[in-house]
Every structure is written in structure tokens, then in C-alpha cells.
From TrEMBL, chains A, B:
Name used for this protein in its record: Maleylacetoacetate isomerase
PROSITE patterns, sorted: GST_CTER, GST_NTER
EC identifiers of the protein: 5.2.1.2
Species this protein is from: Chondromyces crocatus
Stored InterPro entries: Glutathione-S-Trfase_C-like, Glutathione-S-Trfase_C_sf, Glutathione_S-Trfase, Glutathione_S-Trfase_N, GST_Zeta, GST_Zeta_C, GST_Zeta_N, Thioredoxin-like_sf
Pfam families found in the cross-reference section: GST_N_2
Residue span, GST N-terminal domain: 1-86
UniProt-listed GO biological process terms: glutathione metabolic process; L-phenylalanine catabolic process
Amino acid sequence: MKLHGYWRSSATWRVRIALAYKGIEHEYIPVNIIRDGGEQHLDTYGAVNPMRQVPVLEIEVGGAPLRLAQSLAIIEFLDERFPTPRLLPEDRYLRARTRQLAEIINAGIQPFQNLGTSLHLREAFGVDDKTFSHRYIERGLAAFQAVAEETAGRYCVGDEVSMADACLVPQLYASRRFGVDVSPYPTLLRIEEACMLLPAFQAAHPDRQPDAPKQ
Amino acid sequence: MKLHGYWRSSATWRVRIALAYKGIEHEYIPVNIIRDGGEQHLDTYGAVNPMRQVPVLEIEVGGAPLRLAQSLAIIEFLDERFPTPRLLPEDRYLRARTRQLAEIINAGIQPFQNLGTSLHLREAFGVDDKTFSHRYIERGLAAFQAVAEETAGRYCVGDEVSMADACLVPQLYASRRFGVDVSPYPTLLRIEEACMLLPAFQAAHPDRQPDAPKQ
């Protein structure tokens, strides 16, 4: 199993959390999405993922490589293939809530703070992409907190780690990096703190990846 | 079961397809996202969905209302609760591919063509939102087609309708409405044609909804 990713990509980080939490051995293939306009735009990467994004999980099925993209689709696959410890709760309603929370970040925040979006808005339209992304990060974190408050225990959904936590932790890091004040989200900060006590979340941190710049 | 939605919302339409395909009885609660700046911004709607978006599926759990948002989370819930006919294939790899395809539209296109995004880009930054959204629609449809070509039969994933089809049909309608040339995507047009022969897809069409303007 191979993971194509980038150390600071939030979506890659979500999948790294899932792999580490489940203890799944894999090879890491760094894709530098910054250098020379981004290696994801090389001809060869188009066959790996036509959307030219990271992460991609590459597995072998019947002797041929199968390349899966979209972080939540990858995490759902890993949870079906390696069910223990699970990242989606057993209860049907809590599973639905977990997916709702994950999508608030995946579809409700990430597209607007994405490096490609920011560059395009800045270069093609002269938009202050920081002002633009802040609006969506703040709206999303406020909604995430409001929804999570119904289910939160130690983590987003009760006392078991879920896919929602795997989305939240990278999102809070990205929010700070982009200069968003995260103090209005105390419930989310408390959950982040609980997650960061776990070895899987520590191992998945960007600074611990082989393609992170040396300090 | 109640569906809060808007006749022309792509995300609502995806859920309507799932409900119709599975033959699930429900009440439809129109939310006019245009009139007076949008009913989703009324105080009362904040309790229905803190993200202030449609669709929301409202169900009763233990006598209390449970409100689920995010179209893909809702469809996954419906597929678990009402497994026949299924909208996610039985095969683990095809399930993953179905989710990947759905996310290309849900997270890769929809956020960029969304009414709220278009209005904000136009009003706050003077951006030509049509030029902006076309870029993401075209990138997404091209990637969707490239990925779907590996699995497509009569529908996106083999010969059974899936969540990917429930995302594709509303996306093609929206693409045309926004003036995108869809002729470079013959595989997708062929699948759309096959879907539109099915009564469930016909019943879910925006023009057939009670809140659609009278012709």
C-alpha cells in the first residue's frame, strides 16, 4: 500500500491519521505540490489522479494498481478493509453525524482554503485570498462546533476517535497557519488536545513527515 | 421523514434521487434560498442546519427530531437504513470508487459553483464568478469522466445506479445552466441519458418539485 501525499496537506494528513490509528503499514510517496508550480501537474501524475490532488492511496488489486483519491473515500475504504479500531461509530445515527462533520470540513471549508484556490483567486482576479478563506474557515468551524456539541464526549462523537477527529485536527492547524483566531471554538480546542495525546495523531503530524523541511 | 430543500439545489436533488430510487415516503419542506436574501439565513433555520445550507433530512429518533445535513452523509444514511435497492456497490473497491466520484462533484465542483460563493465573489471582490466557476466545473467533469471510464457500464459504476449517478445528473444540469459546454464529456452524457429513463430520476427533476416556478 502506498500513500501519495504532501507533508502539510490537510487532506493527506487526515489519511495519515487513519493509517496510523489502524496501524497499517504503507510506503509514503511525497508529491511536492509547491516546487516548480507543483509536481501534481506533471504528465505522469495525471494517471495517478486526474484531479491532480493529494492524497492518493495506491493498492494492488488482482495484480494491477488501484489508485484511490478523495480523502474521505479513502478513509471509508480503510475502515471497511481494516475495521479495528473503527473510525465510524457502530450506531447508524452517529455514523451519519460523523460523516456530516467530516463533510463540513471536506466540502465546506477545505475547497476555499486550498492552495490552488488561493493562488488562482490571487493571480487571476487579484482577490485577497486570506480575507476570502477566513470567511469560510470561520463559518465552517462555528457550524462544526455547533453540530459537534450535540455528540461530543472526549472526541467529536462520544469517547471514540472517528473520521470527524481526523478532519478536525488538520483543519485547526491550517486555520492557525492562515491567521484565523480559533479562540471562539473551545469545544474543538479541547477535542484537539485530547487527540494530540494519542500516538497516532502525533505520528501523523506534518513536522514528523520525511518531506517536511528540516528545522 | 422530512426533507428541507430547494427545487434547483443540486445537493437537494441528489437526495431526492436517493429517496425516489428507494421509494421512501417523506414530506418536502421548501426553503427558498433566493427570496429576501435566502430563508436559510432566518434565525429559525440556524437550528435546522448551522451551515445554513440545504438539504437537511429530518427524522425522529426516540421521539426527538434528528436533523442530518450534507447530501453525501444523508445518502449514506439512507443506504444503510433502506439497503434495497442499494446506492453503493457491494464490492469494496467499487464502493470506494463510487465515493471518490461523488466527492469529485461534492467537494471538487459544487463549492465553487454554489450560489453563496458566486454572490460573495461578485459582491465582495468584483470577481466574474462565471469565469471562476467554469474553471472548476470543467476540471471536475474532465476528471470525473477519466475516473468513471474505468468502471462505467450503463451507469457510472457498472450497470447499477449508484450515488455517483445521483451526483452526476444534477451536476450536468447545473453545468449547462451556467453556460459550460458539456460536449467534451460524451461518456457522462450517455450515462445521464440512461439515468433519465428511470422514473426515480424523472420524479426528482427540479421542474417536478412543488416549489418550482409555474411554467
